[in-house]
Design goal:
- With 229 residues, the chain is mainly α.
- The protein contains seven helices and two strands; from the N terminus they run ααααββααα.
- It has one domain.
- Strand 1 and strand 2 form a beta hairpin.
- Helix 5 crosses helix 7 and helix 6 runs antiparallel to helix 7.
- 29% of the residues are buried.
């Protein structure tokens, strides 16, 4: 299935490192919250303020993109589990088992999975009124498809954004050190930069795992629809 080899198109910003920086102010210090225990437990990326406008913007962009991808990943897992639980499937991560159980439960309906590009849909045809639980399942599969597509669509862009930041580590340290702040503030900003880079490396390692699972699910949907990936 050719669609799984590349990602849906998305706008990408040209990575240009700007040298402008502004002194650390009280309002700027409060503009970005520090990472908290809740974020660490959920795996969210909270970008910390580093005192250079361009760098703050870039780290925030990476954090926002990664967090959205993570949310879509959680939605993908939850929607598949919802369908699996509804039909008492042996495992909660198999679209194949889910479709088999759905067909067995609603044998009077003609049920199939249709794939178009990165989208897959549960098709239901019935002479009688479609049961409520089957309507819910159809909606769940649509939501599952949207989440899967969203994970894949940002994967390449996110990796490029992260790679650019990691390659500029020395330059970023220099920019933060050049800000018009006292020694204590500079130390705090450099610590924030170090933490942001640590989080960026974690996102770089985690994001491909999300992409792989989403790709596997899309390939599974393709097989179930009769398409050879």
């Amino acid at each position: 299935m050719g669609c799984c080899c590349s990602s849906p198109a998305g706008d990408e910003r040209e990575p240009l490192l700007q040298s402008n920086s502004k002194p650390e102010t009280e309002s700027a210090r409060q503009s970005r919250p520090a990472a908290n225990d809740s974020d660490e437990k959920t795996g969210r990326f909270t970008a910390r303020h580093v005192g250079v406008n361009d760098l703050d913007e870039r780290f925030n962009d990476v954090a926002e993109t990664f967090n959205k991808q993570q949310e879509h990943y959680e939605t993908m897992k939850n929607k598949l589990q919802t369908v699996a639980n509804r039909y008492k499937c042996p495992t909660n991560d198999s679209l194949t088992q889910c479709l088999k159980k759905v067909k067995e439960e609603h044998e009077n309906c003609h049920i199939s999975l249709e794939v178009k590009g990165y989208d897959f849909t549960l098709m239901v045809r019935s002479e009688a009124e479609i049961p409520t639980d089957l309507k819910m399942t159809k909606d769940n599969i649509t939501e599952l498809s949207k989440a899967t597509k969203a994970i894949i669509s940002v994967a390449t862009k996110l990796q490029e954004m992260i790679d650019w930041l990691l390659k500029k580590e020395d330059s970023m340290n220099t920019q933060v050190e050049a800000t018009d702040n006292n020694h204590q503030d500079k130390k705090r900003l450099l610590d924030n930069l170090k933490e942001n880079l640590r989080e960026a490396r974690r996102a770089k390692e985690t994001s491909p795992k999300y992409r792989k699972e989403a790709g596997n699910l899309l390939n599974e949907a393709a097989v179930l629809s009769g398409i050879t990936p």
